[in-house]
Amino acid sequence: MAISLKSIKKKTAAELQPIFTIYGVPKIGKSSLGSEFPRPVFIQTAEGESVPAGIVADTIEVRNYAELCEAIGSLVMEEHNYASAIIDSTTGLENIIRAEACARNNWKTIEDPGYGKGYKVAAGIFLEYIDGIMTLRRERNMAIVQLGHTDITRFDSPTTDPYSRYRINMHKDAADIIEANSDVIAFLNFKASIKKVDAGFNKEVRHAEGGGLRWIFLEERGGYIAGNRFGMPPEIQFRKGEGYSALAKYLPPAPPSAEAEAA
């Protein structure tokens, strides 16, 4: 069909629930923040992933790609009252997808084909996963929350000298896909300042100082990747039990529970 100016339509900001990527330094509370999302179900992708102490959460354990697809498919097709799917974590997710790439191609490891080909094949399977979570959001209006760990990588900026920054701990091809398909990329960290101390004999030593305050960073800076599509502030203080409520001010309203709709 030929394109005509008569086909122009007006669009407003999406009312669907967002896709989040939340990554941060160890033990800062990524899973705790995930548990604060409305009516969550955790899809745990590796042994050892656990919900925070003191929190009881519904979980689905997946250990291979078929189980991952079944878990997402069940949330699409079956009746339930969940409003948020928490992928915990992207490290396990990447391992599952690499194993699937190897199984499809009879490789022993993702490095077997050489020249980075294995990672390119895995990237194609990551796109299948993205299609699955997009379907889950579209059909059930569920928020998707992907929890990840950090890596410090070199960034070869075209406008400055190279520098290091935090990024989600995944292969670059996979990280690019996850980030490009997230409505919110949130980096969790503590704030630290560098203090100079006179050590005598015309010497100075430097050490980091900072309180125990935790922060959610939501706009990219030189030291980390972050961003959002909702006009959120560059950073929000993360207080336990109040993280999601601080973010929710800028997000589409979560869908009502079955009980609320029946009332």
CATH architecture field: 3-Layer(aba) Sandwich
* First-to-last CA distance: 47 Å
User: How would you sum up the global shape?
Assistant: globular
**What number of structural domains do the residues give?**
1
The SSE order reads EHEEHEHHEEHEEEEEEHH
Which structural class do the helices and strands define? Answer: alpha/beta
Quick one: biggest sheet?
10 strands, mixed
Give the full name of the CATH homologous superfamily: P-loop containing nucleotide triphosphate hydrolases
Average pLDDT number: 89
Strand tally, please?
Answer: 12
Integer-rounded radius of gyration: 21 Å
Beta-strand level of the residues, as a percent range?
25-35%
- The residue ranges in which pLDDT falls below 50 over 5 or more consecutive positions are none
Say what the CATH topology is. Rossmann fold
Helix content: 25-40%
**CATH level 1 class label:** Alpha Beta
List the total number of helices. Answer: 7
